[in-house]
Amino acid sequence: MSSTRRSIAEAAGLVWHAGPMRAVCHALVTFVQAALPVAVAWLTKLVLDELVRGATVAELAALLVPLVVVGVAIAALPQLSAYIGAELGRRVSTYALDRLYVAMERIVGLGPFETPAFLDRLRLASQGGTMAPVFVGSAFGLASTVLTIGGFIGSVVILSPVMAVVVLVAGVPALIAQIALARRRAKLMLELAPVQRREFFYSHLLGSVEAAKEVRLFGLGAFMRARMLAERRTADRAHRALERRDLLVEGGLELLGALIAGGGLIWAVLAARTGTLTVGDVSMFIAAVAGLQGGLSALVSGIASTHHQLLLFGHYADIVHIEPDLPVAADPEPTPPLRQGIELRDVWFRYADDLPWILRGVTLTLPYGKAVAVVGLNGAGKSTLAKLLCRLYDPTRGSIHWDGVDLRDLDPAGLRARLGAVFQDHMTYDFSARDNIAVGDLRALDDLDRIKAAAIRAGVDDAISALPDGYDTALTRMFVFTLKRGKQPSTGVTLSGGQWQRVALARAFLRDHADFMILDEPSSGLDPEAEHDVHLRMRRYRADRTSLLISHRLNAVREADLIAVLADGEIAEQGRHDELMAADGLYARLFRIQASGYQDEAVPGPGALPDGFPGALPLPRPPDLP
Ligand SMILES: Nc1ncnc2c1ncn2[C@@H]1O[C@H](COP(=O)(O)OP(=O)(O)OP(=O)(O)O)[C@@H](O)[C@H]1O
């Protein structure tokens, strides 16, 4: 199916879903409205002819009463039409957005969200979705204009077929020009999407609480504002150029229309003078030419704007019909409870074909019931490995197996239901404390006991209980909340970094049914005592469960059943802590460096640090300050 036809079918489906009766009513009112101007023109012509003929009052009344009724209808119907159209529009828009976000859930991995072209299309799609009612309204308007034009053409044909042809032919170049303009407008929108996204990005940074600290500390306000305005000016320039063209075309069309109307009027008056036309015919002619001119101009701009909206709506239809980004088996196997373990077999991975390899042939087994730790320098690929295990990406080469079954053959949602994870860059939602923990398992949303138990395990229960509204306290300063009746609205509170980290841990603990737990730097923001405490809790909780722990705190991983050291995308060494210390490789060096930091000895000089370790290179001297 062509994309235009698909978009039209999609729009028709939306309208039908929004309410068939409403759509039919809207169509009826629209079409009646369309016929009214033609009726007025004909009735006026008849009244004038009857007047000239010297008709009786009764004869005139037979025409005047319908004329008054039509006039009343012309006054009342637009309001009714607007009311039905607005309700239809709201329903179409809500349903369209729902479909859009349902479709986005079909995206299995992270790849599309890191692809600028996809993000641009997504922005246009959500615009297309919210514009669905406008599109539907334009389509109805177009149909109504066609009806009005049809009525007037019929009238002009009756009076003078030659004039009807002239008026119609004059409309064709305008139609073509407007459609070309609409195409250019839609193309421009796609071209400007990255510019507008960057502008939004800077304006968001300037107003975001996350960035506010650095923006003030480093004096970034003017710098970011300049960049934001530069993006805006780029978009303005492009719009201006387009609108100049628009202006020329529109101006030309108006001129052409005025000339035709003027010529037609002179012809009609001269024809009435010689008796070829009646006075009523002249009035009909004036109304028909004006109606046709107005109708054609409305048709031209209606087609152009509907075409433009259709192109925009095409992005919406594309996203609504999006295929999963990672292959999903037609009949995926349910993910069974883990019994043997997870195996990475010669896994190679890079984020894109033009980016360097991050993992180069990683083969590693995470046996069932064991705690495996992965350590390595910054950028070694540890978090990448964790994301591959969640199937947020697929290996570029090689495979990952869950009890021998390739992850690609499992249902992604089923796999994730068996996983628990705390990511290094966990989310801090502007929700209540209760909701912030419950996102780990939404079934616990109304089960405060479960939420509390998870918070106790993560060691954050005391802190949350001490908040003004306990677990119902909003963890945000961004919104005003009224959580309890009769209470003043409050703006909530924010937690410290370490407390947030514990909330993220509580989310993971809520998934106590998870077969496999991934903990990516779960304690990096904690003070030493808290870190020790969290690791004790995790060890107790994770005993006999399969887990992967990623940490730079080597003291935290020393008790793992297996420690794998990732370097240059490969497993450089693996074994238990004692074995790795005895091997005296990278792990042993890193461990000794960290241990020395805790002892009362001189810290080794930069030369003693492994390549790439912070501090391994002498830092260049900063330029002298003015
Ligand atoms: N989404 C992405 N797109 C492109 N490259 C990425 C992406 N995420 C990570 N990388 C790159 O992959 C490499 C490995 O990153 P990763 O986050 O896996 O390292 P890490 O070992 O967890 O590091 P750290 O110890 O600093 O957390 C880095 O060079 C990083 O720049």
TrEMBL record:
GO cellular component, one term: plasma membrane
Originating species: Nonomuraea polychroma
Single GO term (MF): ATP binding
Keywords: ATP-binding, Membrane, Nucleotide-binding, Transmembrane, Transmembrane helix
Occurrences of domain ABC transporter (ranges): 342-593
Residues covered by region (Disordered): 602-626
Transmembrane segments: 21-43, 63-84, 131-153, 159-181, 247-270
Membrane found in the keyword field: yes
Lineage: Bacteria, Bacillati, Actinomycetota, Actinomycetes, Streptosporangiales
Annotated compartments: Cell membrane
Positions with biased composition (Pro residues): 617-626
Protein name: ATP-binding cassette subfamily B protein
Bilayer topology term: Multi-pass membrane protein
Ranges in a coiled coil: none
